[in-house]
């Protein structure tokens, strides 16, 4: 009986020690299996932020209908930067319509990104980006 109690006590104490605490660190990604992933470097566009947004905005041709709609909204786009620096699985999370979303998908696919690095190895990382869209008839 003592042996069973001792085995139970030791195994339950080991389970308590093995628990992982969630993190609030923005450089870590918590996956669904409660494992923290620490990136040495996040995936990043090789252009400056202003140059990147300039490329995006120059790649959008606003229709007359979009200009007249006075759009004041944000497009939210999600995509993966692969370990080989290629952009894949571009998805629009929040749309504004008028064909703008589809054009943003095509432009984002052309952006030069550098893959995230973990332990010195390039890895895939999801990136989410918000792109403000403002239209007016005088454009």
From TrEMBL:
Protein name listed in UniProt: TonB C-terminal domain-containing protein
Signal peptide: none
GO biological-process terms attached to the record: transmembrane transport
Pfam family, one: TonB_C
InterPro entries attached to this UniProt entry: TonB_C
Domain TonB C-terminal as annotated: residue spans: 60-130
């Amino acid at each position: 009986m003592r042996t069973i109690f001792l085995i139970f006590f030791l195994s339950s104490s080991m389970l308590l020690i093995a628990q992982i605490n969630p993190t609030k660190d923005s450089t870590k990604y918590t996956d669904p299996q409660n494992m923290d992933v620490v990136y040495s470097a996040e995936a990043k566009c090789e252009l400056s932020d202003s140059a990147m947004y300039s490329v995006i905005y120059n790649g959008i041709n606003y229709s007359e209908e979009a200009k007249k709609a006075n759009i004041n909204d944000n497009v939210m786009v999600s995509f993966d930067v692969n370990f080989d620096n290629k952009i894949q699985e571009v998805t629009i999370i929040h749309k504004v319509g008028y064909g703008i979303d589809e054009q943003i998908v095509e432009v984002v696919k052309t952006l030069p990104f550098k893959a995230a690095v973990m332990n010195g190895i390039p890895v895939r990382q999801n990136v989410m980006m918000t792109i403000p869209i403002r239209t007016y008839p005088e454009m």
